[in-house]
């Protein structure tokens, strides 16, 4: 256990320090998937016009992600056209169409759900505007986006299950707070968790509902779980920290002690999660890094200039536990 935690700390400190090109085998950019032409002069950040179709502001994670994109654009001198879809796919599709009309050089998008993007991504491709998927994948043919920058959500689900198994000694009645239905992180965290649970026959998921990645819904759904199952619940798996914090409130209002009577594991590693761990109310958080601004603009510039870039730029992420939380909290940026 000790060794694995030391290892995880190393991973945590390495996070964000891996240069873009080291992540995977570079896939050469071709004129088929983007807009570059050989006679165009190479662009610098100051000449780059980037559109970004953000999905909304549902969680602390998302707020940190937006700040990272906006601050990095300002630091680099990139002209950023940022549109917020306020949690609606139709708004996000409309945002991509607006950015196409504005003839931006490249579009970044965090798709709110996985499906329903083929048509609008094809429109961007036809207009010669490359799409970068940021944070969340979309279920589209590979030629409709140039690269994906973000986490391995399946692995986050697996890590959560392994940690949970350790915390409960392989025996638990788990309730699951799922993220936004049909979103890539909710789909993969759901699947990855179950993959590992196959090895633990005495760990059962007794209920699973969406809390839409928000604190308020996490609290409401947890209150319903408690009404239905009461003391039978011994563990909570929350697809993000915001829902876990909501669940903690519901558990306290029900009269049980979160982190003790009910073990809780969640995903993101926000400052809110660290505070909950310091208070002994959360047992572990699996990191999902939202600070993607620097990698995003580096990738965008490479794409626009026809430089090699990877098809997937994975974030390197760790796991955090209560015993390290006080020391690490001051260093957390989100
Ligand atoms: O796509 C990443 C997920 O979206 C984060 O885990 C969650 O907090 C956010 O809303």
| Biggest β-sheet: strands ordered side by side in the sheet | 3-2-4-5-6-13
Q: Which molecules are bound besides the chains?
A: alpha-L-arabinofuranose
* Spans where pLDDT lies below 50 across 5 or more residues: 1-36
Molecular shape: elongated
Care to count the β-strands?
A: 14
Which structural class matches the secondary elements?
Answer: alpha/beta
- What's the number of helices? 11
| Average pLDDT number | 90
Distance between the termini: 27 Å
Work out the radius of gyration: 20 Å
The major beta sheet can be summarized as: 6 strands, parallel
Q: In percent, how helical is the residue content?
A: 40-55%
Task: Report what the structure shows.
Helix content is about 40%, strand content about 20%. It has 11 helices and 14 strands. The protein has helices at about 1-15, 60-75, 90-100, 120-125, 155-165, 185-195, 215-230, 240-255, 270-280, 295-305, 320-330; strands spanning about 25, 50-55, 80-85, 105-110, 130-135, 145-150, 170-180, 205-210, 235-240, 265-270, 285, 310, 310-315, 320. Alpha-L-arabinofuranose (AHR) binds near residues 61, 136 and 213. Alpha-L-arabinofuranose binds near residues 58, 267 and 288.
List keywords for this structure.
single chain; 334 residues; alpha/beta; 6-stranded parallel β-sheet; 19% strand; elongated; binds alpha-L-arabinofuranose
Architecture blueprint of SSEs:
Blueprint: H1 2-14, E1 26-27, E2 49-54, H2 60-76, E3 79-84, H3 89-101, E4 106-109, H4 118-126, E5 131-134, E6 147-150, H5 153-167, E7 172-178, H6 184-197, E8 203-210, H7 215-229, E9 235-238, H8 241-254, E10 263-268, H9 271-278, E11 284-287, H10 293-304, E12 309-310, E13 312-314, E14 319-320, H11 322-328
Parallel strand pairs: 2-3, 2-4, 4-5, 5-6, 6-13, 7-8, 7-9, 9-10, 10-11
Antiparallel strand pairs: 1-12, 11-14
Bound molecules: alpha-L-arabinofuranose (AHR).
Residues 58-59, 61-62, 135-136, 185, 213, 240, 242, 267-268, 288 line the site of alpha-L-arabinofuranose (AHR).
